Amino acid sequence: MRWTVHPALAQVFAQVADYVDGGRTVFDLPLGPRGGGPFDREVWAALPSLVPYGATMTYGEVAARLGRPGAARAVGRANATNPISLVVPCHRVVGSAGQLTGYGGGDGVATKRALLLHEGRGRGSDVTGVSRQISLSFHGADA
Prior knowledge:
Blueprint: H1 7-20, H2 38-50, E1 57-58, H3 59-65, H4 72-80, E2 93-94, H5 109-118, H6 133-139
Helix pairs in contact: 2-4, 3-4
């Protein structure tokens, strides 16, 4: 039996592999996350341009940039329900003092930390001493 991969899925695999290998900083995929409410979808649509590769922003800063300065918790809820968390980069959103807070992908905050290190961004002791776990997670333990 021969398996074929849908072209859209092949594009996802290729772009994620390119990100992991350090060659991609922006995803260009025809994806539209489903679910969430209107504000969740607004957050998801804005994050890639609001918080680019190599940067971080607090939940409050994201809320303020979206014109809702009191909505930091709503931004956190939107991030927690983000169905495509690498492509919609909720890992780049941090707590008010720069601390790493919850993350729903992979191994939680450890994955968030690894992604930020992979992107060359870290804040304080939260990112000290972490290896490039993202490569191991994506390519397998033998990478």
